Amino acid sequence: MKELVNKIKELKERKNAVILAHCYQNVEIDDVADYVGDSLYLSQMAAKTGAKTIVFAGVYFMAQTAKILCPDKKVLLPNLKSGCEMADMINLMQLREFKRKNPNIPTVCYINSTAEVKSECDICCTSSNAVKIVESLKSPEVLFLPDQNLGRWVEKQLGNVKVITYSGYCPIHHNIKPEETSKVKAANPDIKLLAHPECREEVVSYADFVGSTTGIMNFVKKSSDKKFIIATEKGVVDRLKRDYPDKEFILVKENLICESMKLNYLKDIYESLNNETFEIKVDDEISKKALKCIDRMLEVSK
Ligand code: SF4
After folding, report:
1. Do 11 and 155 lie in a common domain?
2. Whose CA is nearest to atom 2 of ligand 1?
3. CA–CA separation, 44 vs 54, rounded Å?
4. Atom of ligand 1 at shortest range from CA of 112
5. What is d(CA 211, CA 175) in angstroms, rounded to the nearest whole number?
6. Residue 102: count of CB within 10 angstroms of its CB
7. Does 39 sit in the ligand 1 pocket, CB within 6 Å?
8. Are residues 107 and 136 in the same domain?
9. 54 with 105, same domain?
10. Together in a domain, 166 and 293
11. Nearest residue (CA) to ligand 1, atom 5
12. Are 110 and 147 in a shared domain?
């Protein structure tokens, strides 16, 4: 494994490449990644990098976003099967229908959406900045897509904005049932539950802290507690266990695994860099329109 890590590092230097890795990736990828984090952080790093090539260890919409932000760079996704089920729950036709039924309302799309969908939305958001983004619109109503759970959570945080949500969801987070959560909480009454806002509203209602993957990791970093219950994808728990061996983490439910995120291993990163596969391209016109939607978010998030 060390040999492969060294080979990837050498290739990275030779090809002037950076590796961006989402924190749901297999944890071994961190050994070669330049940046590891959530979607907002990785988009910001993609926008800033001076490298010629970006290898995106993540899912398709993330690599597409990097390509939109860096049209002159080569963006590689190691495995073309790495999709996001939530992003695929809304296409352009469905977006137009959603807007037609709710006319003249600003549209916010979660970054977990395709380039085409972004190209017809007003502003993008991530789970780190969704509240701030919706608030920045200063509108009494917004359309929010594709994630119904994140949209509802934002509405609750703000209290003065009607958030009209699309019916999408993340199958991993949505699959955490309120009764499962209350059972774990009841068995561990003194342990804080940290949940991702893609979880159902009832699940989130049991949480002591709600935040993005980065938010959850920062909460653990700052807390003096020794035990936590975590309600998000297993990759976050793998990293927490590695970084805080003196603390204990209980995943709220077994098998909270996004299979698409787990398609990459070190050998795939090596092959991707070595063979320059698979290059992600986005239609010029769609890219320009989607860029406005993403840039507006990055501007508000500064
Ligand atoms: S965890 Fe959910 S939202 Fe994230 S990539 Fe997987 S399916 Fe998409």
Report:
1. no
2. 170
3. 13
4. 3
5. 18
6. 14
7. no
8. yes
9. no
10. yes
11. 84
12. yes
Report whether residue 116 contacts ligand 1, using a CB cutoff of 6 Å. no
Q: Which two tokens stand for residue 99?
A: 């807007």
Confirm or reject: Cβ of 111 under 6 Å from ligand 1. no
Residue type, 214: T
Shared domain check, 67 and 203: no
What is the tens place of the pLDDT at every residue in 256-296? 999 999 999 999 999 999 999 999 999 999 999 999 999 99
Q: Is there a single domain that holds both residue 80 and residue 91? A: no
Rounded to an integer, what distance in angstroms lies between the CA atom of residue 84 and that of residue 253? 21
| Residue 163 and residue 206 in one domain | no
**Residue 298's closest CA among 132, 186, 179?**
132
Question: Which residue, among 125, 105, 77, has the nearest Cα to 275 in the 3D structure?
Answer: 77
Please work out whether the CB of residue 263 comes within 6 Å of at least one atom of ligand 1. no
Atom of ligand 1 nearest to the CA of 85: 7
Does the Cβ of 112 fall within 6 Å of ligand 1?
A: yes
CATH number of the domain where residue 8 is located: 3.40.50.10800
Domain count, the chain: 3
Closest CA to 125 of 32, 245, 233, 39: 39
Q: What is the pLDDT of residues 116-149, one digit of tens each?
A: 999 999 999 999 999 999 999 999 999 999 999 9
Do residues 106 and 282 lie in contact, with contact meaning Cβ atoms separated by under 8 Å? no
Find the domain containing 100 and state its range: 87-170+289-301
Q: What's the one-letter identity of residue 160?
A: N
Neighbours of 288 (CB within 10 A): 13
Antiparallel, parallel or unpaired: β 248-251 and 227-231:
parallel
Q: Which SS3 state, helix, strand or coil, does residue 150 take?
A: helix
The reported pTM is: 0.97
